[in-house]
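Technical note accompanying the year-one report. For the benefit of new consortium partners, we illustrate the data format agreed upon in the data management plan: each record pairs a sequence with a structure-token string. No post-processing was applied to the example shown here.
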Amino acid sequence: MKIVKDQIGGAMRIHKDLTPAHWFTFSLFEQLANVGTDIARTIQWKQNGNSDYSTKAFERALELLDFTIADPKNKKGTLKEILRVREALVDHFMYDNEYMTTDEYWQQYFFDFNYAAAVERGR
């Protein structure tokens, strides 16, 4: 995966219309549910044999996760877990999967945030 540097966040922006200020208005549940959407796409494209689309979806997920990490409200208590999730995702999708996670594990992990975000919104 090629990462290009720029002055915002240290890497090339994929979600060019998404500002940190807007992202920070989302709850942690909503942020991680959105990350999970791109992880689901990563898995779907990988299963369909399209590694290019899978990689692009994963890059989008990492960007959203990096926005989540940068969110000041997530600095207390949850930052360590979010950083661990990022590490495990990179291990699963880019390296040797030393943590031995599965696609199904990640789908369930992020589904729980979708559910929590829906409950939070009153659905």
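Partners are asked to follow this layout when depositing records. Residues 45 and 51 are 7 Å apart (CA to CA).
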